[in-house]
Amino acid sequence: MPPSAGAAPADLRISAVDDGVVTITIARPEARNALRHQTMIELADAITAADRDEAVRCIVLAGGEKAFAAGADIAEMIALDGPALEQHPRTEAWRRIWASGCPMVAAVEGLALGGGCELVLSCDIAIAGSGARFGQPEITLGWMPGAGGTQRLARSAGKSVAMQLVLTGDPIDAAAALRSGMVSEMVAAGDALARATAIARRIASQPRAATRLARHAVLLAFETPLADGVQAEQASFRALASSDERHRRMRAFLERPR
Fold it and tell me: Of these residues, 44, 107, 116, 138, which one is catalytic?
């Protein structure tokens, strides 16, 4: 059942905002953090709320020690056909997650499979513990990725790696994910959250408007022709030229002791 309006999330732990960072942790260890419908709706609600909170400048998305998220809940998914999925709250939850303008850093330990891998790919930066494993096993069930997996994998890891993951269903380890560009850093097992939080705090220390516009500009590189992307970049560059925060920081830079 979907969560009741205003109810505390059952499948997540959400931290208080700390230095501009909020940490959202998937907490269904008994199910290897499988992304049931309720989990997806709660994630969308939490990310949307963080995106709207002026105090939040970066989100850390985490899972557990053994599983970031081991995919969708198959017992729920088997009951949904194509027409049902098209209008399902789960589908809308993914759209709401992708619509957020707040930078997101994934801290990945253990399994990130299926929808869990797609959730990592939906983040802007991903840090992997050395024991993490990434995969899109949907093909083994007669299905295929349906939450951006084919598109984001090809853009981040390239055609060959994406095809191998999608068409075989076999996972890759953290070292291979690092080589392919799926993650930006690999750290010792158990250290992904600490490193992701450090990066998030560094992002949060920057001006909110600038990080959001810069993030949007980078994402456009995957969605538009080069000329259109550069035009959008220049528009944001000019918009930030009039910001008080830009003037304050530049003045402080010029006035610093030498």
Answer: 138
Nearest to 12, CA basis, from 53, 117, 22 = 22
Catalytic status, residue 245: no
User: Thinking of the domain 208-255, which architecture would CATH place it in?
Assistant: Orthogonal Bundle (1.10)
Q: The pTM is what? A: 0.91
Q: Is 233 known to be catalytic?
A: no
Catalytic residue list contains 20: no
| Distance of alpha carbon 180 from the chain centroid | 17
Domain over 12-204 is classified CATH 3.30.300.350: no
The per-residue pLDDT for range 68-109, each reduced to its tens digit, is: 999 888 888 787 777 777 778 888 999 999 999 999 999 999
* Active-site position among 20, 116, 118, 177: 118
* pLDDT, tens digit, 9 for 90 and up, residues 134-191: 999 999 988 898 899 999 999 999 999 999 999 999 999 999 999 999 999 999 999 9
Contact 183, 174 (CB under 8 A): yes
